[in-house]
Amino acid sequence: MERIGIFDSGVETPEEIIMAAGFTPYRLFGDPSIQPEKANEHIPPTHCVWTRNLLERALTGDYGDLKGIIATHGCDRTNREFDIWVECLNLKFMFFLNSPRKRGEKPLEFFITDMKELILQLEETFGVQVSTEKLKDAINTMNEIRGLLKFLSELRKENKIKGSELHGMVKAAQMNDKEETLAYLRNQLEEIKTRNPFEDGKLKKVLLTGSDIDDTEFIKFLEDLGFHIVIDDLCVGTKYYWNTVDESKDPLHALAEYHLSKPIYSTKYPSYERFKILKEYAEKYEVQGVINIAQKFCEPILYEHPYMMKKFKELEIPYLFVEMTYNKESYKQLSTRFSAFAEII
Ligand code: SF4
Fold this sequence. Notes:
The protein is an alpha/beta fold. Helices cover about 50% and strands about 15% of the residues. The protein is built from 13 helices and 8 strands. The termini are far apart. Bound molecules: iron/sulfur cluster. Iron/sulfur cluster (SF4) binds next to helix 2, helix 3 and helix 12. Iron/sulfur cluster binds near residues 267, 299 and 300.
């Protein structure tokens, strides 16, 4: 099936619309083994390293087989960079979806209106029809995927699955055909259920939060340093599957409600509510510490850090903040900080 790319900092793109239009939604990820040389010709190197990496991939032809790209309102980087993407890429379909910053009745109506515009433009560009029935089928499929991922996610606390393994599965679900994803996740679940729990010995149970962290190797790197990521608050993680869409309602209304009521991302208002979610996770999963990772120049996470640090101090939960460069080599340079944190918690 042909693919439409998603350029999205907060997983707020209603993938069901893309599926109902007959395409596979394909979330764009970076490649930490490349340098954003061409992207730096368009964007100052003091801007989010992750989105510059994605632009680099686009400029060097990595996304050439996509039929289009939908950029969904997230942080200032994804919003403003989309203008550059439109100038630099020659794709049949480019759409900016205005997912609201705020929550409530008015933003809900606003989001539904913009989703209708997305549907109209998909229909006109590709000569397809996004019917209510197709939307309902897509919601049903996505809900099943979310349910399976959440079930697998909870097996982290039973030591049956590691955070890196789950991260790989969520990433696969965001890139691959959804029916294939369903079959893949069902098989994975059957196999994982038969496993004996792994020994956690000296592993430190942590909550991982922060920017868009899409490199599974980085999660493995943390595990090798002695952490067990028993819960997370990531877009390649719980934000993608924690809730489900209400299948009894009008599909567009239900999709808008779903995206505006799921655990809030730091790019949305009021972002300080994110702390409530983190507190709830930290207490429920009895973590020994919280790791907050900012991709270099990720403003939303950088702004939030002082508040998070203060609040976790009040809770007496150890908290580590690290700003990192999106580059495999940089991981090694951080190992001392992570190892020291593992020792003190
Ligand atoms: S890493 Fe931060 S600045 Fe970059 S796209 Fe994500 S939220 Fe925006």
